[in-house]
Design brief:
The structure is a homodimer of 461-residue chains. Chain A has 461 residues and is of the alpha/beta class. Chain A contains 16 helices and 14 strands. Chains A and B meet through helix 1, helix 4, helix 5, helix 7 and helix 8 of A and helix 1, helix 4, helix 5, helix 7 and helix 8 of B.
């Protein structure tokens, strides 16, 4: 705990405010222990009486609780607050704790586990052009069509045709990133107590949101060729799920792609057991056109989801759903009810960027740069004695482990203290089970601190 | 029903596709009747056999069902779809039906009931400047801080200080419009089966989303001075709600403001009965600074919500929550889990627009323009023999009724056929109960079609 004492206010106030802030901003977690009175007094060179008074006030405010003989702890619930959402809450709290660390602890940290492409690899000049182009367009202030900006939906129709996924633009619903897309789908198709099938390992934000909805997760083990279809079928028969959330290619975190045979089997099982398949193709533009589940199924049982956060800009929050027309109409209703509409300005920016002649060229450059980075990162991890789950053919993720380590979470904690953010495997597991694996972002693997860290860990084997 | 037959495809295909589209896009509602075979054949000048074949195929596809002796109807559920979300669904379906009409039926319609200010009343030149300014900024591609763009949060801190609501920027969470703000709050504080207090009449999107969450609504009647506090207290004791959602000033739809005494009583009851008050101040910038619930309470029991959709642009989708620090931290967790982050680009645009010296001037102009429009609209409605609920001192809404009409919904249906969109009172009621009242947008009341319509209705008295 790091409380700064140097203000003009009384010392007790400073301590109270400092600890309140630590708790509010979750540097100190609910249930976490604060230093002993003596310890705090010595560290901060203040009298014990001052600390006693501050801790007493924090107890009165509901921030701390004292446990007899054991010291003071941050309370897990504040007064006047609603009851816990569900029994899964503590586990979800751990997850958001980790997500928050990913998103907020950035400055000067080597983000080897981060899920985004560095901004300076993207086409910032293109975005500047799009902004200037938009500044000359008309009617830029309106709410716009709740289905999303019509010219962008038409453009997406063309882009999906390239993947051999024929749709009409009325089957496309624009959303605020894939997050809102997945959120609308789970709100429409799932209710509390339902079980959903997910990839194990898979996408942690999805898992967290599903749990928040009271949905139970059944994890389908992901192998080098895609999900283990025997387990998929067994779980489907056991739980009668309505939905299986998956990624066919460039899967997060493993980087694996479904083989055509596995994709076919998945759809066969979906048909037989009567569930829908949500295909999250968020990394799509990092690879050339190629078959997806939606290509085989033509949006009968597949709901296709994608965004532009990876290849245009994370700052846009524009994604979309392509699905059956009747379901698209229902999801539109839900979108209007919960968010009225998505940002027409952001959608116009995406449209301007996509129709700009430079987009395809910039994608080609980006893919090549990622390919080279992937090759270098593979070599670096192997040189450090790590085992790769697969050597992916596309995308930005590598999934790797040390043979002598059973749980990578302590490793990630240790690394963070040295300025390197790793993504421990446990975060990607439906039940946050321990895992030896870690996700690496190939674009972030050049940092010498990472290399040094990996070598040191390898030397402990 | 309006099916166009003029394509190059076989007639049966054209009919099938046309009716599918009508159903998918909800021009034909679930349970709605399609024309009889003979009727359709005569209208479209095709043979009855063709229609029979098309209807049969639509039945096979699950789009239509035939009821013996009664004809063909759009099915209320499609095959393979999930079960209905809850027993409230039909009612919610009616609501989204109306919202959709508000949002999508725009071209050439006089939008007297619409909730937005016409774009040409807003500062489009200012937005163009903001876009150009943004095109010169750095790091415009990043996801950004999940709490929202820090300079904008600092700016909001200053703006809230003008309302005498002291906050630190760590208490401010940026959201995608007030919609996401309200959504996060209900997800955090309410669970299915809970009862929430709301204003009657009040904000329909809020009601729809609450119902979608499985939350029951208890309506507190809104009087000229604010909510009826005796009923508020009775309902609070009866239902033990965790939250009361309200608007203190420029309430949607009545245009009323809470008197200081009523505001004080509301907070007293909240304290006594232990619920939080969510104050939606979405129209804030349409009026000068003045006391809000949050001014009295200083964000102890009040959660303050606002956006820039009304005064900057509906196309931005930027709003915020200001609340207690510990709750802000919890809502941030939920935001990261469900949407990762909001659009940093949109937030930078808002920041650029707010710090531009023209914003205050443009607000002054806008307020004056709305004041004049309000005065004219009041005169026009009174001249047509309508009764006003109150004559509001600020804001864009008037709430009015004809003495001889009990339910304004049929009136709104009639008006739409004549190119005038009215907002019937039933939409604003927690249980969609009938209402004689209608909401008028003062900025949209100049249209001669509206004037003519009102005069004709008045003449029927």
């Amino acid at each position: 705990m790091n409380v700064q004492l140097h203000g003009r206010h009384p010392l007790v106030d400073q301590i109270v405010e400092g600890i309140k802030q630590q708790i509010d901003e979750r540097h100190l977690r609910p249930g976490g222990r604060v230093p002993s009175i003596r310890g705090f007094a010595e560290t901060h060179k203040v009298s014990r009486f001052t600390v006693v008074e501050a801790y007493d006030r924090l107890v009165a405010l509901g921030y701390l609780e004292s446990r007899r003989g054991s010291g003071f702890y941050a309370t897990s619930r504040r007064n006047g607050e609603a009851a816990l959402k569900d029994e899964e809450r503590p586990r979800t709290a751990d997850l958001v704790w980790l997500i928050r660390r990913l998103l907020t602890q950035r400055d000067g940290v080597a983000l080897a586990g981060a899920p985004w492409i560095p901004s300076d690899w993207l086409d910032e000049a293109g975005m500047r052009r799009a902004l200037r182009a938009l500044s000359r367009e008309k009617q830029i202030l309106d709410f716009g069509d709740p289905r999303g900006h019509a010219p962008l939906r038409s453009q997406l129709e063309l882009m999906l045709a390239e993947l051999d996924i024929p749709v009409s633009s009325s089957q496309i619903l624009l959303t605020e990133g894939t997050s809102q897309a997945l959120d609308l789908i789970m709100r429409r198709l799932l209710r509390p107590g339902d079980t959903a099938l997910v990839d194990d390992p898979g996408y942690y934000n999805l898992f967290g949101n599903l749990r928040q909805h009271g949905v139970r997760l059944a994890g389908v083990p992901r192998g080098p060729d895609g999900p283990d279809t025997a387990t998929l079928e067994r779980l489907a028969r056991q739980h009668q799920p309505k939905v299986y959330f998956t990624q066919s290619v460039m899967q997060n975190p493993t980087g694996t792609a479904m083989s055509p045979h596995v994709a076919f089997r998945v759809l066969q099982i979906a048909e037989r057991c009567g569930f829908m398949v949500v295909e999250d193709d968020v990394c799509c533009d990092l690879d050339g056109p190629g078959p997806r589940l939606a290509t085989l199924d033509r949006l009968n049982r597949v709901i296709y989801v994608r965004s532009f956060s990876k290849t245009l800009a994370g700052s846009l929050r524009v994604g979309f759903i392509a699905c059956r027309g009747d379901l698209a109409a229902e999801l539109l209703d839900l979108k209007m009810l919960t968010s009225i509409t998505s940002s027409q300005l952001a959608e116009r920016l995406v449209h301007a960027a996509l129709v700009d002649g430079h987009y395809r060229k910039s994608l080609t450059r980006l893919r090549e740069r990622i390919r080279l980075a992937r090759e270098r990162a593979v070599l670096a991890l192997e040189r450090a004695g790590m085992e790769l789950f697969v050597e992916p053919k596309a995308g930005m993720f590598l999934w790797a482990r040390f043979g002598h380590i059973d749980d990578s979470l302590p490793l990630a904690e240790e690394a963070l203290a040295e300025g390197v953010m790793l993504a421990p495997g446990t975060v990607f597991r439906p039940g946050l089970e321990p895992s030896p694996w870690m996700r690496f972002n190939v674009a972030m693997c050049e940092d010498p601190r990472l290399r040094a860290l990996l070598e040191r860990i390898a030397s402990r084997a």
